[in-house]
Design brief:
Helix content: over 70%
Strand content: under 5%
Structural class: mainly alpha
Distance between the termini: 36 Å
Radius of gyration: 18 Å
Largest sheet: 2 strands, antiparallel
Shape: globular
Number of strands: 2
Length: 246
């Protein structure tokens, strides 16, 4: 059963020592400088799903997963076009603002965006100066995207998402924000908003998406399980490496 395969990994993620190890502004900035690449590649994973589950070509034609279409489009709306203080902004762009507000170094992720602006679709994380842990994490995500198996993408999205950041970490950010006069206000909003929009509705809908895509096919379920395990192990490796660098 899928839950039996991933529950131990999710428990390890929820209790990871990284959260309690971050105690200073410098450590939190260092975390953000790696984590921002996971925020960006989450959007790439989401868009890979949107391109497979909805119709984004002209002429338009309906795909065969109506509930999956609605769910993915709803997630895209929130992630790519949320409202913050009366203006429209993606969570990724808000994360960049949070980095600037906190004093974290955003230059590597901005270098990556400059590479993408060239329009070829190619990028080099090493040339951009991304931290090594972030490079390995993004590589694992794009390896899955290149394989193009929609049920595997859905499983990685459903079980390896950003909602693994626990309450204790959000409390730390709130405390640092108060201590340093609002220096981490946008990061605090990002954490709280991201978990809010992943609330009670999105969890069951994401599970239903995986179920719709796998159906009664045992092979697809096995592949989905492997993708979920790989996504969680990649996240654990990212957390381990960030902790080691701190």
């Amino acid at each position: 059963m899928l839950s039996a395969r991933i529950d131990p990994l999710r428990e390890r993620l929820a209790s990871h020592p990284l959260y309690s190890h971050i105690r200073t502004t410098e450590q939190l900035r260092a975390f953000m400088e790696s984590h921002v690449f996971a925020v960006w590649d989450f959007m790439s994973l989401l868009k890979a799903l949107q391109s497979r589950l909805t119709s984004v070509t002209v002429p338009w034609q309906p795909t065969r997963w109506p509930e999956c279409r609605r769910f993915i489009n709803e997630i895209v709306l929130g992630e790519e076009s949320d409202l913050f203080e009366g203006r429209t902004v993606s969570h990724f762009e808000l994360y960049l603002e949070a980095m600037r507000e906190s004093g974290a170094d955003a230059q590597p992720i901005l270098c990556l965006l400059d590479q993408l602006a060239a329009g070829s679709g190619d990028f080099d994380l090493g040339l951009a100066g991304a931290p090594a842990p972030a490079q390995r994490f993004v590589d694992s995500t794009f390896a899955l995207i290149r394989q193009g198996r929609v049920h595997a993408l859905a499983a990685a999205f459903t079980f390896g998402r950003e909602d693994v950041i626990p309450d204790m970490f959000r409390k730390l950010v709130r405390d640092l924000n108060r201590e340093f006069g609002g220096q981490f206000a946008k990061f605090q909003w990002y954490l709280e908003r991201h978990i809010e929009v992943d609330g009670e509705d999105h969890g069951p809908l994401a599970l239903r998406m995986v179920a719709d895509l796998c159906g009664d096919d045992e092979k697809l379920w096995n592949e989905a399980g492997r993708a979920a395990v790989d996504a969680l192990e990649a996240r654990l490796a990212l957390w381990d490496e960030i902790l080691e660098r701190l």
